[in-house]
Design a protein that fits this description.
With 156 residues, this protein is mostly helical. It is built from four helices and no strands.
């Protein structure tokens, strides 16, 4: 039977029992929670499209071997880290406002359209990135561009 050991009172630092091999490049984690990731998701998709596609191709060809695509996964992480850093440098106020709104509203996009529009504008002006939702029918407005949406924080 095992016993509980509080990690805060441990006399030794945690050591990963299964470290990655040296052949796998080290990449620091993004360092953000789900709300900033959700706020940046469509921009990450556009900015890191080639790396994401390479990773998905590798994953589909891997036939269940996750170790085969570690390098491609690291490239995706590096690209996302690069974009998050650029967002912080260029659009920090709008980015923080949008992801804090998502955090406070159960991560629902429809509740945060005003801060989202400000973020989208800043991202386009400073980084040249536009938010495009895949699968939107041709000739229709993107859902985040609709002026009088049906779904809001107060239903009609």
């Amino acid at each position: 039977m095992s016993t509980f050991h509080d990690s805060a009172s441990s006399s030794q630092p945690y050591k990963d029992p299964t470290p990655l091999p040296d052949s796998v490049p080290r990449v620091p984690e993004l360092g953000v929670t789900s709300a900033p990731l959700k706020s940046a998701a469509f921009f990450i998709g556009a900015y890191c499209k080639e790396y994401n596609e390479d990773f998905m191709l590798c994953k589909n060809e891997g036939r269940g071997d996750p170790g085969q695509c570690l390098k491609e996964g690291r490239r995706v992480t590096r690209c996302a880290t690069d974009l998050i850093n650029k967002m912080r440098e260029n659009c920090l106020e709008q980015f923080d406002t949008h992801w804090n709104c998502l955090e406070l509203n159960n991560q629902e996009y429809f509740a945060c359209r005003k801060p989202e529009r400000a973020l989208n504008k800043c991202m386009f002006e400073k980084l040249g990135l536009t938010k495009t939702i895949p699968g939107t029918p041709a000739g229709k407005k993107q859902v985040h561009e609709v002026e009088n949406p049906i779904y809001t924080t107060v239903q009609r």
